[in-house]
Amino acid sequence: MARQVLVLQLIAVLVLVVTALALATYDARNDIRASARDEAISVATAVARSPIVQEARETPDPAALLQPFAESVRVDTGVDFVVIMDRDRTRWSHPNPVQLGKTFIGNLGGALEGEVYTEEYVGTLGPSIRAIVPVFASTGGTDPPVVALVAVGITLTQLDDLLVDEFADIVVAAVAVLVVGVVGAWLISQRLRRQTHGMGEREITRMYEYYSAVLHAVREGLLLIDLEGRVQLVNDEARRLLGLPDDVVGRSLDDLGLPPALVAAAAGDKGADEVYVTGDHVLVASSSAAFWDGKEVGAVVTLRDHTELQAVTGELDTVRGLTESLRAQTHEAANRLHTVVSLIEMGRPDDAVDFVTDELKVAQMLTDRVVAAVGDPVVAALLLGKSAEAAERGISLTVTGELPGSFDLASPRDLVTVLGNLVDNAIDAVAGSAEKRIEVHLEGSPTHARVVVGDSGPGLTADEATHALERGWTTKVDAADGHGLGLALVSQVARRLGGGVTIGRSALGGAELVVVLGEQPGGESR
Prior knowledge:
Radius of gyration: 54 Å
Number of helices: 13
Structural class: alpha+beta
CATH class of the largest domain: Alpha Beta
Strand order of the largest sheet: 6-5-9-8-7
CATH superfamily of the largest domain: Histidine kinase-like ATPase, C-terminal domain
Helix content: 40-55%
Largest sheet: 5 strands, antiparallel
Number of domains: 3
């Protein structure tokens, strides 16, 4: 490619120089001929006005006086001939004495009428540029008659010699321009070779095709960011995961509406396998600096979609929590069973019956209340497990309201994500409080649900609440414990189902989170 560019530039410079040389030569030729014509007119006019011409015309032999005079003028001025003639074209002077007395060869134009006439003509001395000037009588008056003519000429041979002298200067300038052009073309080709790393157009095309095919074939999202934070390359998977527009290349990350933490990671906070929540996806992002020739040129960001994995992990956490609750309840049931056995062994069967009956009533009341409030068995099992977990930790958890079992808008997985994370957050929030209370209120229809979870914890400040509900808010997750995405996942589910999340102050004194799934009655969404 560099060689082709060099050859193209050399041809362009050569054509330019040759064209300029031809135009300069043509212009110099015209200038020389115009100058020769002016010089011939000036010399002829001076001779025509000379008194010796008038004196010699009145003598019997004008040539005797005019021949020496004309030759001296010719030699002094450098013209090729000075011919003084009578009105009938008879020569009185000529550089070749043989031509004296003979007829002048050439056109006179309007010279006999008192005009100055110039022409390019082939005479006895060859082709020349000549000027013919009239000689007026010295009788005075306003319109004296023409009594003689003066012809002064410069041969084209002499003009060509002058052109050759000027052409040498023009050639020197053209060669200098050509050298500068060649050197400049060579420097440009060397710069192009460095910028293309010595590769030709076929190699560059093949490399681009291979890289493009690989880039768009990988199942991970790839972003290449330059040092100014602008996107220079993005593949199809990254567009899908981040919801990027088609004209993303060349735009700044700050203008794309991406999560601030992800923007910061791509811009400079390099890290490996960190989790971010953005839009409808849970992404694992890894950012590393990109180097070329030892210099940092930007950053490479890889993105992996862990949305399904995160959902499965959440369900696994829920099942693990239920397992722990069942284990605790089994332990508690064993204690109660030992109590009943001991009462029977002590001969107090009535007390044993009363004790078992009371325990059954409490457990059945809790189960009936939860099952009545939630029609879906998966969600009901979740709330029963969370109630047992809360009871173990000395927390009072109450469930009010009702949620239909045939909820068409969301799947049980979505409801488990919302309720599980909200209750877990509430349990953590009241852990250090003197009064440990959590209230869960459910209401809805087959196309709409409203979940309210309030606690008696310290609550959230206005600034914390604002940032927590910010669109695209991202929380980094510590890979060691896997926590920290609860509220982000809840907000993600709510947005996906056309609802939203609001945070306020609970009547218990702590935070109150209201999650709306679907449209509320009246067509409004939160």
